[in-house]
What we know:
Blueprint lengths: L5 H8 L2 H26 L3 H9 L5 H18 L4 H23 L9 H19 L12
Amino acid sequence: MATGSAAAIATRQAPRWIQVLSWACRIIAAVILLQTLFFKFTGAPESVYIFTKVHAEPWGRIGSGVVELIAAVLLLIPRTIWAGASLALGVMAGAIFSHVTILGIEVMGDGGLLFALALIVFVTSAVALVLHRSQMPVIGRRF
Length: 143
């Protein structure tokens, strides 16, 4: 067997259900992050409204889209799961905070869909980070 990163070896030795849970969480988070990029990068009215309301239009919209793209890619690369999950957690914490303090749960009649998607990405990224915590530089080996 060829040697690989410690993360790849740890993933191969993990029980099958943990591997499946890890992939499911990472794919769900990445798909949601990637799906919302279209709206951010095309300047969809909902995105413009949200970022105007939080006084971050257009740079906040574009910048968060770039960070979400990076997070989605990192989540799908076995060696960088911890980094993708950490980025996604940070961005979604900001989104959730904005919904709770400024935007409200429902935005432009979406029935709370954007808030729910942010919560889903937050939770799935948190689970992925916990499952792959040993990958984190410096502190990972202590957990």
